[in-house]
Amino acid sequence: MRAFLLFLSATFFFVSCKKDKVDNSVNYSITVNYPEIYSAVAASGVTVVLKNLNTNQETTGTTNAAGTVDFEKLAPGSYSVTASKELSAAEAETLTGVSEEVFLNATEPQVQIVADGNTTITLKGSAVGGWVIKEFYYSGAPSSFYFYDAFIEIYNNSTDTLYADGLLIGNTKASSSSSTAVYGFIAEGKEDVYLATILRIPGSGTQHPVAPGKSIVIATDGIDHKDDPNGNPNSPVNLGKGVADFEVYYDVNPNTPDTDNPDVPNVEIVYAYSTTLFDYLPGVFGSGLVIFEHNNPGGLPKFKEPNTTANTDFVEVPKGSIIDGLDAVANSNIRPEQKRLPVNIDAGMNTVGSTYSGASLRRKVKQEINGRKVLQDTNNSANDFEVADPPAPKNWQ
Do 161 and 116 fall within a single domain? Predict the structure, then answer.
């Protein structure tokens, strides 16, 4: 009898211990957001992986429409969190305004999950979009034959901060007002670009950050052309300190020195087609304008224009180095075969209409996302640009 009672007692103790055993697993959720520059906040369809750093066991889930994925019955401990999503070009266009495939990722190397709770992480990805030419003012001031107020504005059309250090700007041979003039390189069916001038933004790599939706302005002369005594009252632009980020100090001809504004940094002149000019002149009739990247622009080959007797050398830039291009021509009578840029760089061309008009070519705004203007970029300047009168460096009037 005594043995039986001891058996019952032991059995009761064992059962009691089983009933008293506590389930200490936790429920935890991860919320994933898009980068702040995107049009939406909650990121749905994101693959999220939790990895227990003690056991290396992984648990995978996918975020819902609210950007959240719930994980149940997790063992308390330290976890790493990784999130990833691939956006198609169509999806990226909806979220960023730029039709370009993008990969987004986020990582939290260590999250302590010891009780029910939530962690929010934000995706990051490579920049969608890139540099584009926003505005090109070349026509000259009205009723003045004054053309020192030209400027080029380059815009960060991406979703990330870009650095202008080392960016190259080049223009072709100046356009002609003649509807019968032929440009030899294009007539021969060339696909690369042939430049008369190459300028480079100075910097070591991270000295000149440009935020999304912001721009840099390169002026022929970095002064307030409307009010400065060295300017012209008919000029429509102020390109002084605070507006122009750089100016072209054209010091290739010591006999006719250019004015240098110490308040506006100079670009580097990589190549100039002439050493007798007195300033940087993109041409009041317009020219082909490109921005590009190359690790040795000074070593690029040079060619003379075919079918002419001119002795001028032009630098050949491979089409693969070109980031963006604008073919600005003299007037609406210019025929397609007179283009300065090949169609693989700019499928069309555009014009302010006449010289000394005080007008510029400005890229159209495609849409606005969270205050950031996304500029239209179809690689056809006939569609992407419109005449702006007056020009508005770093503005949209």
Answer: no
Q: Are strands 215-219 and 246-247 parallel, antiparallel or unpaired?
A: parallel
Count of beta carbons in the 10 Å neighbourhood of residue 120: 12
3 state DSSP class of 28: strand
pTM of the model: 0.83
Tell me, what CATH number does 46's domain have? 2.60.40.10
Q: Of the candidates 254, 159, 257, which has an alpha carbon nearest to the alpha carbon of residue 210?
A: 159
Q: Is residue 396 part of a domain?
A: no
- Please report whether residue 5 resides in a domain: no
Q: Around Cβ 61, how many Cβ atoms within 10 Å?
A: 17
pLDDT digits (tens, 9 = 90+) for 14-32: 555 555 556 789 999 999 9
The two tokens of residue 339 are: 């283009």
Cβ burial 39-56 (10 Å sphere, 16+ → b, else e): eeeebbebebbbbbeeee
User: Which domain does 162 fall in, by range?
Assistant: 131-388
Angle at 177 between CA 172 and CA 179, to 5 degrees: 105
